[in-house]
Specification:
Layout (H helix, E strand, L loop, with lengths): L7 H10 L10 H14 L4 H12 L34 H14 L8 H34 L6 E10 L2 E7 L2 E8 L9 E10 L4 E6 L2
Parallel strand pairs: 3-5
Antiparallel strand pairs: 1-2, 1-4, 2-3, 4-5
Helix pairs in contact: 1-3
Length: 213
Amino acid sequence: MVRKPKRWDRITELAAEQNFLLPEKPDAQALTQFLSAARIADPVRFPDLSLSIIKLLGSGEYVLQLPGEDTAGHFGLAVKEYAHSTAPNRRYPDLITQRLLKAAFAGKPSPYEKDELEALANHCTEAEDAAKKVERQVKKSAAAMLLEPMIGERFDALVTGVTEHGTWVRILSPPVEGKLERGYEGVDVGQMLRVQLIGTDVERGFIDFKRVG
């Protein structure tokens, strides 16, 4: 779950560009209203806006919520109390949730202690992040192989990430993400640019662009 948006300030800027005023402090309901209005106003460009918002919200995490404790809720879904579970053979957190439910329905004590659940939540968050990292690397290598014959071509692109490690853009056709190696000064998440593919490295999964407009 996402408890607090990573870059609310940039989300408010994107909303202002769409003539929608969001409050200075994070407000999940206001964000939901903005996205609903944006989807209706411009359904063609909404997927790009939605991707930018997801990036700006940041990564989710598994957390332990005990009965009676105040909860921040799931910001991205704009709900105060939240839990979910799917087939237990898909993810270990789902198995934990179903073990807890089984014990509760049977009127038995929890099969886990509080400290154990907190440790499991942290472990599952770290393990899922590691798995996603491997998945991203495989996809990057496949994308680099796909784009290798297109070096020198120009594309419309959406800025998807800006950190101290670099600036990333996602071209729209084919939908592939790469690093903006030149011309990244002053750009931010959600901006549309014109970029040129300047290099790829299939083994490392590198896709490099430069800004041309």
